[in-house]
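Forgive a beginner's question, but would it be possible to get a protein, spelled out as residues, together with the matching structure tokens, please?
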Amino acid sequence: MRGVAFILLIIFTTMTTVAPSNTSKLKYSGNNSFMIDYENDQFLLDGKPFRYVSGSFHYFRTPRQYWRGIFKKMRAAGLNAISTYIEWSTHEPEPGKWIWNGDADIIEFLKIAEEEDLLVILRPGPYICAERDFGGLPTWLLSKKDIKLRTNDRWYMKNVQKYLETVLKKVKPFLRGNGGPIIMVQVENEYGSFNACDIHYRTKLRDIFAKHIESNAVLFTTDGPQLSMLRCGVIPEVFATVDFGPSSNGTKSFEMMRKFQPRGPLVNSEYYPGWLTHWGESLQKVSSLNVVKTLDEILSIGASVNIYMFFGGTNFGFKSGANTDPEFRPQLTSYDYDAPLTEAGDLTPKYFAMRDVIKSYLPVNDLPIPADNKKKAYGVIILEQVIRLFDPLAQSLLSSIVVQTDRTPTFEELQIQQLQLVLYETYLNLENETLTTLKTLVHDRAYVYINKQLIGILSRMEKKYNLPINTALGNHLSLLVVNEGHVNYGDYLKDYKGLLNVSLGEETSLSWNVTGFTLDNVTSLCEFNSKISVSGCVNKGPIFYRATFFIKEDPVDTYLDTSGWGKGVAYINGYNIGRYWPLNGPQITLYVPGVILKHGSNELIILEYEYASKSLEMKFINTPKFITNKLLENDVNNCNLTDNV
């Protein structure tokens, strides 16, 4: 009976909740409904007691051709539901410009999930975290400097409402009450971990969701099992859940939630079988023994659970985010997460161990487990220099904006979406001075040049913000700033990129020429070739390199081994497969889905910022490569920055 499917009359105070209406006494038609029986602490699916074991799988982290295969593996593991975020920045990368096709086709994703007998837990945000750039929010929001994110700020809410109403109208036919697979829809995401604690914002979001969801699915929140998080995360009339990993005490975590929601089913909305990894740290691993032990404890008390991540996938392009706690730490391109399915969707021992636990609690059909995608080592390729970024021709082809100004604007102030590089250029007028100090708060990494010759690197990650300048080398100063990913979690989401302030000794008035690059499409460079190819330290500006390689049969998955190179970004057949940084580790290879390769001629283009392999080789191998225990020596520190190369 759809009219009573969403009965969540929860009246929250700081620490207590009034019990909701007794849904178990209501009469149901039993068809196409999902609701909460508070009296018996359980969910009801089509009128019958139900609990879910779900796995997180984000459609935007793998090509759509692989979606069905991942679903089949999840179903064969015993899962009866999947959980996915909807990423605002994927669907509205520019104001009013909507994308719903290709790998962004969320409707096709929902259809395939339903065909594979999986229910869906939908998490539309607007903020999703997910270790994605800016937590999935579109960076164009930051063009309004006084915006107050994740609050009832008028301009923020105007755009949030437009986004949510667009999304919720599209998914409405797929709600359980309308005959579809979506049983639950999340309102915001881990709001209690944010410092705003704005009840007006939370209730406004609730009202937007409720208008479109009505009684056709259950609205819910999820927060960490801490008092402060739940106090600021729960929303009146919205079902509350918690999240915790295998190292937490599940009993105590659920007891904390009961202080805010005394009755209803217990749910862990994010149970962590692995963890994320940042550049420059050891690869994160979580013991399968600990994972299955705590999973068994959760299921033994009748709780529902969502495994985050069951399949992690890849942060293709420039979509990986960063953390500040308090150090700035950008995340890897790989989102393998040490999950039950690898970055490429391959089965792991952890998959089978978790499957065995799930089978002891849920009826599991004896479904065939699909084989892993084939992998192949396509061998060594030699790259040739195409053009330098500082070449006027390259700048004319790749620049998105050029402005002249008396200050250093942030990437976001330039109001060109998804800027990845900004070049700030000025002329020094330091009379009778040859030595001075450049000071700047850089977000995130700046290559500093005098007369287009690299003299040093400033780094937010390494907390290096000062650099001596010898003007005897010249008076043309350039700073090329690299965006390494907007912060995705915590209180510092307003993460502006660029030179946030600049001082040069006594110099106070500088005129700047500012050039911004999005790096969306580098295929226009293919027709150019330099007569020489620089190897070793890249000191006269980043260089584009190119190689072609041939595949004689139907292409399959592979991994691009970037060993011996410095830091950059790689494209195959125009598809941005992500950032690489082997000099810092721990990720050495980039995953290459076979569906972006072609039978016949293929093209690799890279943009290298720091160090080109002396052999100018990269190679395709059939297994991923990570440094698991220690970092590589950073060869770029040994570069003589005044060498004329």
User: Anything to note?
Assistant: The radius of gyration is 26 Å. The mean pLDDT is 92. The longest helix spans residues 154-171. Residues 267 and 304 are 5 Å apart (CA to CA).
